[in-house]
Write a structure and sequence with these properties.
Mean pLDDT of chain B: 95
Mean pLDDT of chain A: 96
Strand order of the largest sheet of chain A: 2-1-5-3-4
CATH class of the largest domain in chain A: Alpha Beta
Number of domains of chain B: 3
Shape of chain A: globular
Number of strands of chain A: 5
Helix content of chain A: 25-40%
CATH topology of the largest domain in chain B: Aldehyde Oxidoreductase, domain 4
Number of domains of chain A: 2
Strand order of the largest sheet of chain B: 10-12-8-21-18-19-20
CATH topology of the largest domain in chain A: Ubiquitin-like (UB roll)
Shape of chain B: globular
Distance between the termini of chain B: 62 Å
CATH architecture of the largest domain in chain A: Roll
Low-confidence stretches of chain B: 1-14
Order of helices and strands of chain A: EEHEEHEHHHH
Distance between the termini of chain A: 30 Å
Radius of gyration of chain B: 28 Å
CATH superfamily of the largest domain in chain A: Beta-grasp domain
CATH class of the largest domain in chain B: Alpha Beta
CATH architecture of the largest domain in chain B: 2-Layer Sandwich
Strand content of chain A: 5-15%
Number of helices of chain A: 6
Structural class of chain A: alpha+beta
Low-confidence stretches of chain A: none
Structural class of chain B: alpha+beta
Radius of gyration of chain A: 15 Å
Oligomer: heterodimer
CATH superfamily of the largest domain in chain B: Aldehyde oxidase/xanthine dehydrogenase, molybdopterin binding domain
Strand content of chain B: 15-25%
Largest sheet of chain A: 5 strands, mixed
Number of helices of chain B: 19
Number of strands of chain B: 30
Helix content of chain B: 25-40%
């Protein structure tokens, strides 16, 4: 039995300790906002937060996550009003939408550490997240907008 | 009854609602339901794969219905071709094919509501007006909501031939509206096929042959079956011998080795314990159904390699080919030419790489079948599924989920058929899941293409003849009636193809995605040889095609084609000195009924060519949702830059050499432009499609800018391979 803290909720799960956190989150806990895209830490669709760091949940063993604070897109904000979520809606970023949770989770760590990122900061921080529809320009713009919302006192994580 | 809390909690951002609140919906017609509280629900009929039809198609209905968009909620419709039309996402057709039917559906519903009010108020219908979901009778001062008349309206026969709005009076269409599923997307709600869950659902995966041209010889699943959660391992045939396949029933492999278990990870892990032996499949055959009865297609058995494929293409290119179009006397013109310019362009297979890998849920019992998942063409899939399951089509229910990309691949139903057959066999609800590796190596790819372009110039550097000879594995990309056909006195288009066992199919702008790359690069080189500006040269040719068109069936509109070029010239400040710091490349193309032109501004960044800025002009007629349409164009530009620079799938002895994103190079954020300036030509033409047209010309605009940047023309994709080591790809 492994004890997980996901989105401030405690779960006891009976799974193989080598199971990637991604599949425990999706299949066992039923939180499907975190996506499977590649399974080898190349696309970023599976990014979650672990103790305030962005991790690829597809290559993070569930045993590593035991007892750590894990946050998924479902737990990023209480009312879906994280500055990034607001900015994403304001700029209508998504096309197919599949990668966007991972994009937002990566961006959230950037914004936590850097209140006013430049394009270059954003490009570097987001280089692990693929978007097949090509919404990169809007993502970049939305991160700038979220930083602005955050600076003006919009709620952060 | 819809609870007060839900209504009061309803915000414009929540444009989709949960199921289970439907008791009070009064159906006006197949697309429109209204509650007594005047909430209007519009069903989106067409599959959503990022083209944003969940928003744009309901907007069309809301426009003619005269609904208040703020009070409209949107729901994905069921698969029901009778009620909801063709239901096909592809060919840039969603808006184009639904434009008129949805306007009519909205207008008819409005008329029914007006009739209901007129009857209740005992006034002539001509005196009833509507605005924002309300009905008015000015003379008596009476008014009421659509909701209050919905019940009565539903009993009125659907009127035919209702007058549609003048496009000048639109107030929903042509105004940017937010994606109705935006909130669900950014908050991680279950939307996609992979997110779908069902009581007692098992997970299935398919272990396919390691390479094209191979098949399963034998397997030992004893270790796999000992693994936790594993239920079954078996071989399932996709099609029985002689099964008549429809045009989109492409199969990559027929003998499916299936592993079924409880969870995704258990099945993924247990698959690795299979002991497998493969053997060459040899020559096989497909039985295809068609209008003229069934026909057999031989599939060669060769284990193909990219180097050999390239060599074979070079050999075939020298052989006589099928003539696709001929105007004038090109042979004589080339013989008499003062100068002949000849260039050959190559492009590799491409994988679609949808972010959501192929998957489908199926629950097949003796009585009925339910299927849920991401699919571009449910209406094409159902007849085949009915035959495969030996079950009447009306016993089969297909639910369409939002798709994590499609790009053409999900027009093919193979993964749905596989899921259904697996569910039938294990007698349980099953979700078939492709891993990324399965998805990339077990695909239906963009074909491998080549084309040789020749131009004949006279002593005064006039273009007197044009010749294109294109080939591909296993099909060529030539559209013989496209520009510059019609603009040159002597014109010849030819095509040839090499059969292959590598499965191919539609990929965003099929054929065009290569044609535009090659042809528009060639025209750039031609303009340079003639000492002409590349935009002016194209405009000259178009003027020629307008004044004195050569041949018949030129399938482009000269004015719309010239229009995008002229506007991109203006918007990009084509000849402005302040833009000289950029290496600029231009290209334009017509496909899927719309017109696109791009100017790409390139610089060197960290020793690499980088597209920093792009100007895009599109003529797709009336634009339903301008900001979302701009998003799609931006995406097409990024997709084009990415595939032009990096995209490519290669084979070694039948085996796909790229099986995940660490080997298949995809464009990333730092490689995306800083700015894409999108402009739509303003006109009142009925919408002509947008998903594909902006994509093909990007490749050539990049190639033409690259020439200015690095001083070298690139003739083979992906371009990056041409800048480092010289090889085929």
């Amino acid at each position: 039995m492994i004890t997980l803290n996901v989105n401030k909720k405690i779960y006891n799960v009976d799974v193989d300790p080598d199971t990637p956190l991604l599949w425990v989150i999706r299949d066992t806990l039923g939180l499907v906002g975190t996506k499977y895209g590649c399974g080898v830490a190349q696309c970023g669709a599976c990014v979650v937060h672990m103790n305030g760091e962005a991790v690829f949940s597809c290559v993070t063993k569930v045993s590593t996550a035991a007892g750590q604070k894990v946050v998924t897109i479902e737990g990023l904000s209480e009312k879906n009003d994280h500055p990034l979520q607001k900015a994403w809606l304001e700029l209508d970023v998504p096309q197919c939408g599949y990668c966007q949770a991972g994009q937002i989770m990566s961006a959230a760590i950037l914004l936590k550490e850097n209140k006013a990122p430049t394009d270059e900061d954003i490009d570097a921080a987001m280089s692990g997240n693929l978007c097949r529809c090509g919404t990169y320009l809007r993502i970049r713009k939305a991160i700038h907008l979220a930083a602005e919302i955050q600076r003006k006192g919009g709620k952060s994580q | 009854m819809i609870s007060f809390t839900w209504l009061s909690a309803f915000r414009p951002g929540d444009k989709t609602i949960d199921n289970g609140l439907t008791e009070q919906w009064i159906e006006i017609n197949g697309y429109i339901k209204i509650t007594p509280e005047n909430i209007i629900k519009i069903l989106n009929p067409n599959p959503e794969f990022g083209q944003n039809v969940m928003t744009s198609l309901p907007m069309i209905i809301a426009e003619e219905l005269d609904a208040d968009w703020q009070k409209v909620v949107v729901e994905m419709g069921p698969h029901d071709s009778v009620k909801l039309g063709p239901q096909f996402a592809g060919g840039s057709n969603s808006v184009r094919m639904y434009w008129k039917p949805l306007r009519e559906a909205g207008a008819a519903a409005r008329q029914m509501l007006m009739e209901a009010a007129a009857q209740a108020w005992t006034v002539p219908i001509e005196e009833v007006t509507t605005k924002d979901g309300k009905l008015y009778h000015e003379k008596t001062g009476k008014s009421g909501t659509y909701g209050s008349f919905a019940s009565k309206a539903a009993s009125i026969p659907v009127p035919k031939g209702v007058k549609l709005k003048d496009v000048k009076n639109f107030n929903v269409v042509r105004n940017s509206k937010k994606n109705v599923e935006g909130l669900k997307i950014v908050s991680g709600k279950p939307l996609f096929g992979l997110d779908y869950k069902h009581e007692g659902m098992l997970i299935a995966m398919i272990e396919h042959p390691p390479g094209f041209g191979m098949k399963l010889k034998s397997f030992d699943a004893s270790e796999t079956l000992k693994m936790p959660g594993i239920k079954d391992v078996f071989v399932q045939k996709l099609y029985e011998e002689g099964f008549e396949q429809g045009g989109f029933d492409t199969r990559t492999f027929n003998d499916l080795l299936v592993v079924v278990g409880n969870t995704t990870w258990q099945v993924m892990t247990a698959r690795k314990k299979l002991k497998l032996a493969w053997e060459p499949a040899g020559e096989t055959k497909n039985t295809m159904s068609g209008r003229d009865g069934k026909r057999e297609v031989i599939v060669p058995g060769e284990l193909e390699s990219t180097d050999a494929q390239l060599k074979k293409m070079q050999e075939y290119a020298k052989k006589p080919a099928q003539q696709l179009r001929k105007d004038g006397d090109p042979e004589t013109a080339f013989k008499n030419a003062a100068q002949v310019i000849e260039r050959t362009y190559n492009a590799p297979f491409l994988a679609h790489n949808c972010m959501e890998p192929m998957n489908f849920f199926a629950h097949v019992t003796d009585e009925k079948a339910m299927l849920v998942g991401p699919l571009q063409a449910p209406g094409w899939t159902k007849p085949t599924l009915s035959k495969l399951l030996n079950m009447p089509a009306d016993k089969i229910e297909i639910q369409m989920t939002r798709m994590g990309g499609g790009f053409g691949l999900r027009a093919y139903g193979h993964y749905l058929f596989e899921a259904a057959l697996i569910s039938k066999k294990v007698k349980a609800p099953v979700k078939l899941v492709y891993t990324r590796e399965d998805d990339m190596t077990y695909g239906i790819y963009r074909p491998m293409y080549t084309a040789t372009y020749r131009a004949a110039l006279d002593a005064n550097k006039n273009l007197i003849a044009f010749h294109v000879k294109g080939g591909g594995i296993p099909e060529h990309a030539i559209h013989a009636n496209r520009f510059p056909a019609g603009a040159v006195d002597n014109y010849l288009a030819e095509g040839w193809q090499i059969p292959s066992n590598i499965t191919i199919g539609a990929f965003r702008a099929p054929g065009s995605n290569f044609n535009a790359a090659a042809e528009q690069s060639f025209l750039d080189e031609l303009a340079e040889a003639m000492g002409k500006d590349p935009i002016d040269f194209r405009l000259e040719l178009l003027q020629r095609a307008k004044e004195n068109p050569i041949g018949k069936n030129n399938d482009y509109n000269v004015d719309r084609y010239a229009g995008v070029l002229k506007l991109v010239k203006e918007k990009s400040g084509w000849n402005k000195p302040e833009n000289k710091k950029y290496s600029r490349g231009v290209a334009a193309y017509f496909c899927h009924n719309s017109y696109a032109a791009h100017v790409v501004d390139m610089i060197m960044k960290d020793g690499q060519p980088y597209v920093e800025r792009v100007f895009s002009v599109i003529d797709c007629g009336i634009v339903i949702n301008p900001d979302a349409a701009a998003n799609m164009v931006e995406g097409a530009v990024v997709d084009g830059i990415g595939n032009a620079f990096y995209g490519g799938l290669t084979h070694k002895d039948g085996v796909v050499e790229q099986n995940n994103f660490n080997r298949y190079r995809m464009i990333r954020m730092y490689e995306a432009p800083k700015k894409i300036d999108v402009h739509f030509v303003q006109n009142d033409i009925d919408p002509t499609g947008l998903g594909e047209p902006p994509f093909p010309p990007v490749f050539a605009a990049v190639a033409n800018a690259l020439y200015k940047t690095v001083g070298k023309r690139v003739y083979a994709q992906p371009f990056m391979s041409q800048l480092t080591a010289l090889r085929g790809f």
